[in-house]
């Protein structure tokens, strides 16, 4: 499963119930003493409405080929794997205040995208400001932050439409949001099940719908990637979370159906199914359940747990032209856990 993806939301209107405290968010952070420039971040270059071709390889490329004194690989240029470039693309990442979502956002920035982080938190994690600054100063692009509640559909549509208005396009969505709860099936309440499904399935659906409307509006095609979980297809040994697992199975099936409907508009829809991911929250969980730290690595073929950084390439691949003939697919990145 993806313990670093998480729920994103805005200031909660009275009509929207709070997420109960006994729900365990899938990533953690502390609030900043001095908030970063969320709504006016340091700016890099604005994306162009008409996408440009990747740049040529720098002169050092040929020099290094001839001398063999250093690596000659400059990926993303016109010479080497240009299809992985996201230059001039505008991409949304939900649940990106921290954890897996923020790590993925930085990878997309490195690939050249202008990225909008959507999250429920009023302030993102301390690392967010560093990445904003790096985006503008080192990568020539921009990381924006929008606070929004996945259950506030009207506000969600309004924000995503405004992003489309600003750039005249929308190219991608990475839905890296969700909540987790461990409760035996005999003890689950209908309210808790509904909350899980409202966030993990309906929230992902409404975010994808809002993004697809803008992609169709501008006619620039696009790619939608949803973070599912290996738990969509297995029951986790020693981890009792029936509603969560069912919700992730719903995400996988949702992606297939959206892909079948939106393919005519050039919109691809795929999922990533992570295995166990070690985050700060999971490290704290291991203190309470040391047996999990011992047992979980033995349950996959590589004998280790994953880190958020190990999913960067999967996100860039699925959101770029490198996967242009791939849709309705589920990419398992679980160390072989579900193949036993």
Automatic annotation (TrEMBL):
Keyword field contains Calcium: no
InterPro entries attached to this UniProt entry: NAD(P)-bd_dom_sf, Sc_DH/Rdtase_CS, SDR_fam
Start and end residues of each stretch annotated as Disordered: 32-71
Gene Ontology molecular function: oxidoreductase activity, acting on NAD(P)H, oxygen as acceptor; oxidoreductase activity, acting on the CH-OH group of donors, NAD or NADP as acceptor
Key words, A-Z: NADP, Oxidoreductase
Domain of life of the source: Eukaryota
Pfam families assigned: adh_short_C2
Family: Belongs to the short-chain dehydrogenases/reductases (SDR) family.
Full protein name: Uncharacterized protein
Provenance organism: Ramalina farinacea
Lineage summary: Eukaryota, Fungi, Dikarya, Ascomycota, Pezizomycotina
């Amino acid at each position: 499963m993806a313990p670093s993806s998480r729920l994103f939301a805005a200031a909660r209107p009275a009509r929207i119930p709070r997420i109960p405290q006994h729900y365990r968010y899938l990533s953690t952070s502390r609030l900043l003493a001095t908030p970063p420039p969320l709504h006016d971040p340091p700016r890099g270059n604005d994306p162009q409405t008409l996408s440009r071709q990747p740049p040529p390889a720098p002169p050092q490329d040929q020099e290094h080929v001839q001398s063999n004194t250093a690596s000659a690989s400059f990926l993303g240029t016109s010479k080497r794997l240009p299809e992985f470039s996201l230059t001039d693309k505008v991409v949304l990442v939900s649940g990106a205040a921290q954890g897996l979502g923020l790590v993925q956002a930085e990878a997309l920035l490195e690939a050249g995208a202008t990225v909008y982080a959507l999250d429920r938190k009023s302030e993102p994690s301390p690392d967010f400001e560093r990445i904003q600054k790096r985006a503008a100063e080192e990568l020539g692009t921009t990381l924006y932050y929008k606070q929004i509640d996945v259950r506030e559909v009207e506000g969600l549509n309004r924000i995503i439409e405004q992003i489309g208005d600003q750039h005249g396009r929308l190219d991608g969505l990475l839905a890296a949001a969700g909540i987790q709860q461990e409760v035996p099936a005999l003890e689950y309440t209908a309210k808790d099940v509904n909350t899980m499904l409202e966030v993990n399935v309906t929230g992902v659906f409404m975010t994808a719908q809002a993004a697809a409307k803008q992609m169709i509006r501008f006619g620039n095609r696009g790619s939608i990637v949803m973070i599912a979980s290996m738990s969509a297809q297995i029951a986790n040994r020693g981890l009792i979370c029936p509603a969560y697992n069912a919700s992730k199975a719903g995400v996988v099936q949702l992606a297939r159906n959206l892909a079948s409907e939106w393919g005519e508009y050039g919109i691809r829809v795929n999922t990533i199914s992570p295995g166990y991911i070690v985050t700060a929250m999971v490290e704290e969980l291991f203190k309470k359940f040391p047996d999990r730290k011992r047992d979980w690595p033995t349950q996959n073929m590589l004998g280790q747990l994953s880190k958020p950084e190990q999913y960067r390439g999967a996100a860039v691949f699925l959101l770029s032209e490198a996967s242009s003939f791939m849709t309705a697919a589920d990419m398992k990145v679980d160390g072989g856990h579900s193949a036993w």
